[in-house]
Design goal:
The chain is an alpha/beta fold and 262 residues long. The chain is built from 11 helices and 9 strands.
Length: 262
């Protein structure tokens, strides 16, 4: 797979792993890293061999958000276009993660703040280490949220709780995030990598086409009327039923055996 400067991308047994790799900077999102992340997301979204994707961070933090040092160095005349381009590429990566067929597992180690929180929330399955911490952090720096945080958070935890996190920048523990519904599970720090990979392998062995279609249905939940959404469900299940995985799944049920999805 492609070689990058600030991330690592690998593929093994159907699982693509994206490692944010600026540990000395808390995996802060600078222009180079985000450009590479967008490319990696595109590779994963179109790769026929990719059946699940793992996103995590190297070092003591998952991602502390945008690289404020890079923003400041751009100066008053350059900061707006720099941020506009960086955030646009980050958002393109988020759309690819949301719309791709493979399920995205996010393993959160340490801090997930600002746009790092947005990356964590984008996961289809989010595993937090016990040492994970979550924080919006935007208004503390005098800026507004990005990275999909104001899209994902109200859907996951409700508007009122989102307002509190945006305006107060309160830091959340892994237990707080689990209670609110921001993460799927918590594991011991030492078990994060193993548990996240095990979940990815489970997804990789599963019916990836059906899961990808289910992702699309869930993404549209709040945009459609009931009538529209039921119509989409009808269309998707009809297509899934005649897919290779659909045929195998029904046949395995009738024959009382475990299915083998391809």
């Amino acid at each position: 797979m492609a070689s990058y400067e600030h991330i690592k991308l690998s593929l093994q047994s159907g699982v693509a792993t994206i490692l944010l790799n600026r540990p000395e900077k808390g995996n802060a999102l600078n222009t180079k890293l985000v450009t590479e992340l967008l490319d990696a997301a595109a590779v994963c979204s179109r790769g026929a061999a990719v059946r699940a994707v793992l996103l995590t961070g190297a070092g003591r933090a998952f991602c502390v958000g945008g690289d404020l040092a890079e923003f400041a160095a751009a100066g008053e005349s350059g900061i707006a276009p720099l941020i506009k381009d960086l955030v646009a590429n980050l958002h393109r990566a988020l759309v690819l993660f949301a719309e791709m067929r493979p399920l995205l597992v996010v393993a959160v180690n340490g801090a997930a703040a600002g746009a790092g929180l947005g990356l964590a929330l984008a996961g289809d399955h989010v595993i937090a280490a016990e040492n994970a911490r979550f924080k919006m952090a935007y208004t503390a720096a005098g800026v507004t949220p990005d990275g999909g945080t104001t899209y994902f958070l109200p859907r996951l935890i409700g508007l009122r709780r989102t307002q509190e996190l945006v305006y107060t920048n309160r830091s959340l523990t892994a237990a707080d995030a689990l209670q609110l519904g921001m993460v799927t599970q918590i594991v011991a720090d030492r078990d994060l990598e193993t548990q996240a990979m095990a979940m990815c392998q489970t997804f990789a062995r599963g019916p990836s086409e059906a899961c990808g279609a289910a992702k699309k249905l869930l993404l549209g939940t709040f945009q459609h009327s009931l009538r529209e959404h039921l119509s989409h469900e009808e269309d998707e299940i009809a297509v899934a039923a005649v897919s290779l995985d659909g045929i195998e799944g029904v046949r395995a049920f009738v024959e009382n055996r475990a299915p083998t999805f391809s």
